[in-house]
Amino acid sequence: MSLQGIKIGLAITGSHCTMDKMFVQLENLQSAGALIYPIISPAVRNTSTRYGEAKMLKERVEAITGNTIIEEIVDAEPIGPQKLFDVIVIAPCTGNTLAKLANGISDTAVLMAAKAQLRNQRPVVLSIATNDGLGINAKNIGILLATKNIFMVPFGQDDPVGKPNSLVSQMDLLPLTIEKALKKEQVQPLLVCIPSSSLKEEKFIEQNKYCGN
Fold this sequence. Notes:
Elements: E1 7-12, H1 19-31, E2 35-40, H2 42-46, H3 54-65, H4 73-76, E3 87-93, H5 95-102, H6 109-119, E4 124-130, H7 138-145, E5 150-152, E6 155-156, E7 167-169, H8 174-182, H9 201-207
Parallel strand pairs: 1-2, 1-3, 3-4, 4-5
Antiparallel strand pairs: 4-7, 6-7
């Protein structure tokens, strides 16, 4: 399936350390012909970090997509009744956003966009990045995995030694996940091996030798 002409609402939340990977995929989606409409959470709008200034991030997103960022809940509400997007993608999707989405909370433009999309039984794709995915947020991931029209980019532990509860998506699988989600299919395998910076290469290979390709 081609992404040519597909309207994607790209919702960005505050996992700032994964922003570089998100920008790579944003450009890949553009190159594939998708039409990208950015949406951001308050954490992205208001927070500058060592990974970049908030203002510069917003300017970069708008420059790449050519579209104005949706920042407020009121501006996200028309997504539902007007059926604006073929798919909503939350990338990266933080643990905070996961928890709120799983419990029906819509107090940001990102969450309102997801709620508006789901009311039309259209796909929402999550690219998770959370330090507590195998901790307190595990139950919320379970809820969302069982929720109709929610699809996830394959994910795994990025640092099983240093952060054993941390889960991140393999973001280079985002385009494929979107293609499958548009057909109401979950890309498989869902659980993948993520290279870990805290393990020497030999140790990582030994620990992951039984992982599926």
